[in-house]
Amino acid sequence: MGLLNNLKDWLNQEQKDLEEGGMDKDEGVTRLFFATDVHGSTVCWRKFINAAEYYSADVLVLGGDTTGKAIMPIIRENGTYRFNRGGQEQVIERDELEDAKESMENAGYYSYVLTQAEYQELEQASDSQERQDEIFEEKMVERAEKWRALAEERLPRDFPVYVSPGNDDPFHVDQVWEESDLIDLVEGEVVEIGDGYEMASTGWTNPTPWDTDREESESELADRLEAVIDKIDDMDRAIFNFHAPPYDSQLDDAPELDENLKPKFGAQSTEPVGSTAVREAIETYQPPLSLHGHIHESRGQTRIVDTIAVNPGSVYSEGSLQGAIIDLRPEVDVVGLVRG
């Protein structure tokens, strides 16, 4: 039993080290922290920024889908505030409002306070959808600006932070990142990572059932991938940062949906939904490392020919950040998938 106990101790210590952070790394190693699909959760963004110190990371990469998916109306009436969350109506007092808004924000929602009369007027207006879209866009930009300020406050001005949009991110949010003195928006670009590595990025995906902002046919996506890959000088030291995971890679298993876009069989039945174009690009060029997201449930890593492919997954609505710690030694070493 001694060998088994020693193995258990080693595994427990390894997990403890990952959770406690501040991990040592060898001299000359570039440590990359990769996360994705935070979908408007401010607590996840804070943890992403804090990962620089917490995991002794040298580079932060956020792989896509930064914006939230929904606004939560809060109805103000008679000194109280009413909202529906998780199918249950809640009524709170004025002194509970800020805590409620913070809780919504950390789960990725955008709160919007208005009176019952204002709510009804908005719902019944002839241009209701346009006005709701405008409010949604304003809330997205407002939060992205808040995140930008947090990063610029917490990190040194020359610390490398790379953000790539995802298919759910509307185009008007790009300007927030483009105006940052710290954060680099890397959509369609190749940037140097550490000593000689190059990262090629795009947040576009193959088609989804939800007709999102940045999705296109597999043939169009293949052309897009080829355009950014063509900018890489040395494929032996390349990193692909593509939001869509490769098809049938175990990084793209999502619940099978019925005709109403509801999970079949209690979400117990899954099917691969990743991109064939991304898989073909990986098989053709075989970079040492490929980073993905998009499919929240498919946390893990796999090998495709000579490429290590990673999807850290996402549980943003729980306020937890999942990520991957990767050391470039110069060979690729996936230190671990973490959650905090």
Q: So what's the overall shape?
A: globular
Task: Determine the N-to-C terminus distance.
Answer: 32 Å
Biggest sheet details: 6 strands, mixed
Detail the poorly predicted runs.
1-20
Count of β-strands: 18
> How many helices?
8
Percent of residues in helices: 25-40%
Percent of residues in beta strands?
25-35%
Mean pLDDT: 92
Task: Output the structural class.
Answer: alpha/beta
Order of helices and strands: HEHEEEEHEHHEHEEEHEEEHEEEEE
Please compute the radius of gyration using only Cα atoms. 21 Å
Strand order of the largest sheet: 8-7-2-1-17-18
List keywords for this structure.
340 residues, alpha/beta, 6-stranded mixed beta sheet
Describe the structure.
With 340 residues, the protein is an alpha/beta fold. Helix content is 31%, strand content 26%. It has eight helices and 18 strands. Strands 8-7-2-1-17-18 form a six-stranded mixed sheet. Strands 9-10-11-14-16-15 form a six-stranded mixed sheet, with helices on one face. It has a four-stranded mixed sheet with strand order 5-4-3-6. Helix 2 runs parallel beside helix 5 and helix 7 packs parallel to helix 8. The longest helix has 27 residues. It is globular, with a radius of gyration of 21 Å. 38% of the residues are buried.
